Amino acid sequence: MLIDDHGVPRVKCYCGNPLKEPIDTATTPRYTGNPWPTFRPENVKVVTPSVNVIRDFTLKGASAGQLIVRPSGTDGALDKVVTTTSTTSSASTTTASTTTAPTASVPRDGLQAWLSGDRGVVATGGKVSRWTDQSGTGHDATQPDPNAQPTLQAAALKGRPALHFDGTDDVLTVGIDINPAKTPNLTIVAVFSSDTTATSPHRKLYSHDDGGFDRTVGLDDRARTNYSIFAGTGVVDYFTLSANTVYQTTDIWTSTQFIGRVNTRNTVSVAVANGAGRPTMQIGGNPGFGEYWMGGIAEFLVYSRALSAAEQSQVESYLAAKYQ
């Protein structure tokens, strides 16, 4: 059975015949044909159209208790298996959802962290204390201070969940050392938006800077474009960012070069000479210098290698389909 984006059955998929609108009858329905073993007339359901357009359909899997989230218009390649657990405190309810993404969705080799707004977010009263890593390496992004925790927004970027950083002090820390001496080749993929185009004060999407212009990206007035990178010797152009616009960037760092892609397009390639920096990554800011992001982050992936062109396309295609 094929259904539309309001959940209404429209086509019999085995023959392709369109279905007419149901007619309410005064008589008891009569069933014809051979029933399948588990068919029960009392289990027949009436479908009520959803008021809103459905972006993700929740399906019951073959295994007991298994739920599958399937994005509208897809054939199963982007399915996610979901399990949810909840714990209740006196103040509010904290929910952590864990989703096992399909292996083919993104390359797994070298994947050090995968943070997604619709998976593994631990929030109390909307404030996020932990963004659980989906890569399997245990590199969660955390913030123990409630005053510095970003806020989970249910339909922030293209109708999907994202963490919103307030531009004042919100920041998360990830235990990954991106020092070029330890991680010479690095790929960071992000889906995000900014509430502002202003470059003062400076605002950083991610950083591990300790004052040496270490691997960092964000808004800065020391370059010609408002969105820029730290190249070790100073601040270098990346691209001109517009406010309230969803971007998907692929940042490839090596010991000597930075290659940046914006919305699947090659955008910049510049020489870099980054130093050691901090031993951990910060998402949503460069707190040592008070440079905090103001906007949403929905996806954040970190690889300890430079992805090939084919792998870049694979990740970007997956995210483009998700945030179309």
Topology of helices and strands:
Blueprint: E1 2-3, E2 9-11, E3 56-60, E4 67-71, E5 80-88, E6 93-100, E7 111-116, E8 121-124, E9 127-131, E10 141-142, E11 151-157, E12 160-166, E13 172-174, E14 186-192, E15 203-207, E16 216-219, E17 227-230, E18 235-239, E19 247-253, E20 257-262, E21 265-271, E22 281-283, E23 285-286, E24 291-292, E25 294-303, H1 309-322
Antiparallel strand pairs: 1-2, 3-4, 4-5, 5-6, 7-25, 8-9, 9-10, 10-13, 11-12, 12-25, 13-22, 14-19, 14-25, 15-16, 15-22, 16-17, 17-18, 19-20, 20-21, 23-24
Q: How is this structure best described in words?
A:
This protein is mainly beta. It has one helix at 309-322; strands at 2-3, 9-11, 56-60, 67-71, 80-88, 93-100, 111-116, 121-124, 127-131, 141-142, 151-157, 160-166, 172-174, 186-192, 203-207, 216-219, 227-230, 235-239, 247-253, 257-262, 265-271, 281-283, 285-286, 291-292, 294-303. 4% of the residues lie in helices and 40% in strands. The radius of gyration is 23 Å and the shape is elongated.
Quick overview of this protein structure:
The protein is mostly beta strands. The chain has 1 helix and 25 strands. It is elongated.
* pLDDT < 50 stretches: 83-104
Task: Estimate the helix proportion, in percent.
Answer: under 10%
With strands numbered from the N-terminus, the spatial order across the biggest sheet is 8-9-10-13-22-15-16-17-18
DSSP strand (E) fraction? Answer: 35-45%
- With helices defined by DSSP (H or I, 4 residues minimum), what is the helix count? 1
Question: Major β-sheet, in short?
Answer: 9 strands, antiparallel
